[in-house]
Amino acid sequence: MKAERKESLRKWVNVMVPALSLLLAGLMGPIAFTLKSTVKDLVRQELASYETVAASDARLKASNDGRMTSRPCARNQPQAIRMITS
């Protein structure tokens, strides 16, 4: 009786393990596809919330260039021009 149970268990294990692995392999594609798009969206949102150094430098340079062209700083003017405009 004990040997028959053992043989039956081995038979079921030999059938169930490959069946479960095939089921898991079949489901991994759709699950990975779903998670991939979700992760990409999360990463895109997270990166959008941070400002890169290059973007920050470009914004600062544009801001400084705009100030310099619209109105020169008094320190950059010669002494005579500063006295006339004062």
Summarize the structure.
By secondary structure, this protein is mostly helical. It has 3 helices and no strands.
Explained architecture:
It is rod-shaped and about 95 Å long. The mean pLDDT is 78. Helices cover 85% and strands 0% of the residues. The protein is an all-alpha fold and 86 residues long. It contains three helices and no strands.
Strand content: under 5%
Number of strands: 0
Outline the low-pLDDT stretches: none
Average residue pLDDT: 78
Helix content: over 70%
User: Alpha-carbon distance between the termini?
Assistant: 112 Å
Radius of gyration: 36 Å
Class from helix and strand fractions: mainly alpha
What pattern of helices and strands is seen along the backbone?
HHH
Number of helices: 3
Total domains, how many?
Answer: 1
Largest sheet: none
Overall geometry comes to: rod-shaped
